[in-house]
Amino acid sequence: MQTELIRIDRTRMDREVMERAGALLRGGSLVAFPTETVYGLGANALDEEAAKKIYAAKGRPSDNPLIVHIAELEALEGIAAQIPKEAWMLAEAFWPGPLTMIFHKKDRVPWGTTGGLATVAVRMPSDEIAGELIRQGGGYIAAPSANVSGRPSPTTAEHVYEDMKGRIPLILDGGPVPIGLESTIVDLTEDCPVILRPGYITLSMIQEVIRETKVDRGLIQEDSFIRPKAPGMKYRHYAPRAQLTIVEGEAGPVIAYINEQARGTGKVGIICTEETKDCYPLGDVKCIGSRQDERSIASHLFQVLREFDGDDVDRIYSESFDTPGLGQAIMNRLLKAAGHHKIHV
Ligand code: TXA
Ligand code: MG
Question: Distance, CA 151 to ligand 2 centroid (Å)?
């Protein structure tokens, strides 16, 4: 299959291209598109055969459910049952935007879209290209991140092309995404809302809107045997080919430890920040952003992990990024990339 990559200007969207992309979706094909979080791999969420193509293109386990993307608030009631008042409050505060909510599903949502679960994940992205594509594609677009399963999520159309070339007909290129981490997932099917995946919308932002919110215990206790409730959170994800180790501690000892590793045998990759990048004389040093701007760290994380695959390093060491707001989401992704391999110095 030929994969077309078409650049879209957000301020003057090419109607002909957007209509063609919508027609592909309505016809049961896959189209990759930008969102504010990461690029998505879209299919008609109400067409079970189309949803199955997503699993095939990504090599994704079939028990891992998809998020259904909508463009209008009215569309929510078309697929979700028993919508609690907290959901409307969160939608009012954060939609369109990087928040996914889980509800009991209505019958028209196929089991193939929800990985066999009786619940459905729903998100309204803020990216204009995504919004227009969802409307043109029939209003309900299932979209996981547009990477091959296990690879870092794509934050540029080129990343999508690397992974999906020959597997899908069309990629809409909207340039690099602004956030770079997948949406926050909140489960609204229990008595108390529960965060299943940390993201750009933090626990405290949610608690400002609805007082009572918990974090899934399967996420907090990393060594526990409690299974995370979002099936996708149990897989090793985002993994670069070389073993990644996270080094925690005060800046001085962390830098000393990583430099000691870089002096050893083999090619060593280093993930650091603007503040420390000049402290590493050896190794393949990549600056992920500035500690003064945690959003810069979030938006470059997946890009940096992908770059190391091209660089052929033997081992990678990363500083730890426990920044106040996005730190939880950043460290959740980094720990998964490391297979929870971290040391404290
Ligand atoms: O930001 C995002 O959410 C991106 C963009 C493209 O919108 N999408 C995304 O999709 O990250 P994906 O498939 O890579 O991750 C979806 C996560 C998985 O961990 C999955 O297990 C969980 O959502 N999930 C989906 N439906 C669920 C449900 N009904 N119950 C629990 N977890 C669910
Ligand atoms: Mg994903």
Answer: 9
pTM for the model: 0.95
Tell me, in angstroms, the distance from the centre of ligand 2 to residue 323's CA: 23
Ion ligand 2, residues whose Cβ is below 5 A away: 145
Q: Which residues contact 317 (CB under 8 A, 6 or more apart)?
A: 244, 245, 246, 247, 257, 258, 261, 262, 268, 269, 270, 271
Q: Which ligand is nearest to the CA of 41?
A: 1
* 297-306 exposure pattern, b = at least 16 Cβ within 10 A, e = fewer: bbbbbbbbbb
Give the tens place of pLDDT for each residue, 240-270. Answer: 889 999 999 999 999 999 999 999 999 999 9
Helices 294-311, 157-164: crossing angle, 10 deg rounding: 40
CA 191, CA 152: separation in Å to the nearest integer?
33
Looking at residue 240, its pLDDT comes to 81
Q: What is the 3-state secondary structure (H, E, C) of the chain?
A: CCCEEEECCCCCCCHHHHHHHHHHHHCCCCEEECCCCCCEEEEECCCHHHHHHHHHHHCCCCCCCCEEECCCHHHHHHHEECCCHHHHHHHHHHCCCCEEEEEEECCCCCCCCCCCCCEEEEECCCCHHHHHHHHHCCCCEECCECCCCCCCCCCCHHHHHHHHCCCCCEEEECCCCCCCCCCEEEECCCCCCEEEECCCCCHHHHHHHCCCCEECHHHHCCCCCCCCCCHHHHCCCCCCCCEEEEEECCHHHHHHHHHHHHHCCCCEEEEECCCCHHHCCCCEEEECCECCEHHHHHHHHHHHHHHHHHHCCCEEEEECCCCCCCHHHHHHHHHHHCCCCEEEC
